[in-house]
Amino acid sequence: MLSSDPVTLHQFNRPIMNGRSKMKQTSLFQDLIGELLPLFQVPTHQSRVDRLGAHLIRTWKKERRRKAMKRSTRLWFLLVSIAALLVPGRATESPQYTVVHTESEFEIRLYRSTAWMSAPSDKISFEKATKHGFHRLFQYIQGANLNSTRLRMTKPVVTSIVPGAGALHSSAYYVRFYLQTKFQVSPPVPLPELDLVSDKWAPCCVAVRKFSGFARDGNMVKEAEKLALSLSRSSWANSTNFDSTNAYSIAQYDSPFKLFERVNEVWVDVTGSEETGCGSSSVEAY
User: Fold this and answer.
1) Does a cis peptide bond (omega within 30 degrees of 0) precede residue 156?
2) Distance CA 209, CA 230 (A)
3) Which SUPFAM superfamilies does this UniProt record tie to the protein (predicted)?
4) Is the pTM here over 0.70, yes or no?
5) Deepest in the core among 11, 112, 155, 283, taking most CB within 10 A?
6) Residues 110, 274: Cα–Cα separation, whole Å
7) Contact of 159 with 80, CB cutoff 8 Å
8) What confidence tens digit (pLDDT) does each residue in 45-84 have?
């Protein structure tokens, strides 16, 4: 006969209650394992590839930003340095000359004997050659010479076009800085790695045409052709000096920061001498 003792009934029902509690705990534990299991799974080959690809892309973008910032910093430093050398009000030396003939579209100048530092360049365009040569010459005047001497910036920066002197008989370029008076006789020797040449120009007669704006690949040939046409219609027709190694030169007088009223010139060597005043009777000194 079953006893109705409460204690006995309680003891009989305990296993049933404990079983329900354990089932509930097991369900909660399984849910927790289901949430945590993905965190501890070993990545597959494809996931490793995806993660590696994402890492490489992030690294490439970071390196690209770093290089772009480095280039921008160098360019800014160069432009600021040039601007500091060409600030308004500071005297900038130029080669001295005498105007011996003037017409509406050109003039003839007699330049005295001058010394220049030149940077030969085999770049394929006027603009690239000018930048390439200017950078080396700028290092030179900033102290990249055997004496570590700093020279003042002068004007103009002259880029001479030498036909047939480049690869496969293409044109070559010489970018030139006029040397300030202090160093005309004995300029500092440039460091060998700059590949610069010290030039001494004898007195010479030059036909000059002025033009504004920036000197570019697209306009400098046209300006040279305009000068040749003007000469052909004047008393200076057939006066081009064929003994000159330069077909023509582009002279730039202004800092790259100057946007308006810029002054550029096309130079072409013409026949004549200092003794004859380039063959003119009217003389105007500068």
Assistant:
1) yes
2) 9
3) Probable bacterial effector-binding domain
4) no
5) 155
6) 7
7) no
8) 556 666 667 767 777 777 777 776 666 555 555 555 555 4
Q: Angle 239-244-248 (CA atoms, 0-180°, nearest 5)?
A: 80
Give me the domain span that covers residue 77: 56-85
**Phi and psi of 250, rounded to 5°?**
-110, 120
Which residue bears the tokens 């045409």?
A: 209
**In a domain? residue 277:** yes
CA distances from 238 to 146, 229, 231, 270, 281 (A): 44, 11, 8, 9, 19
SS3 of residue 61 by DSSP: helix
The dihedrals phi and psi of 102, each to the nearest 5 degrees, come to -135, 135
Domain count, the chain: 2
> What's the half-sphere exposure (Cβ side, CA atoms, 13 Å) at 117?
32
Whose tokens are 């160069």? That residue is 78
> Which amino acid is residue 157, in one-letter code?
V
Quick: pLDDT tens for 14-34: 444 455 665 656 666 666 666
Lay out the sheet containing 157-162: strands in order across: 197-201, 114-121, 172-178, 157-162, 248-252, 264-270, 204-211, 107-111, 97-102, 284-285
Name residues whose C-beta falls within 8 Å of residue 101's C-beta, 6 or more positions apart in sequence.
107, 108, 236, 278, 280, 282
Alpha helices, DSSP H only, in the chain?
Answer: 6-36, 45-85, 126-141, 217-232
Residue 167 belongs to a domain with what CATH number?
A: 3.20.80.10
Q: Tell me, yes or no, whether 163 and 200 share the same domain.
A: yes
Q: Is 166 helix (H, G, I), strand (E, B) or coil?
A: coil
User: Distance (Å, rounded) from C-alpha 234 to C-alpha 282?
Assistant: 16
The CA angle 260-128-186, to the nearest 5 degrees, is: 85
pLDDT in tens, 129-184: 999 999 999 999 999 999 999 999 999 999 999 887 555 445 689 999 999 999 99
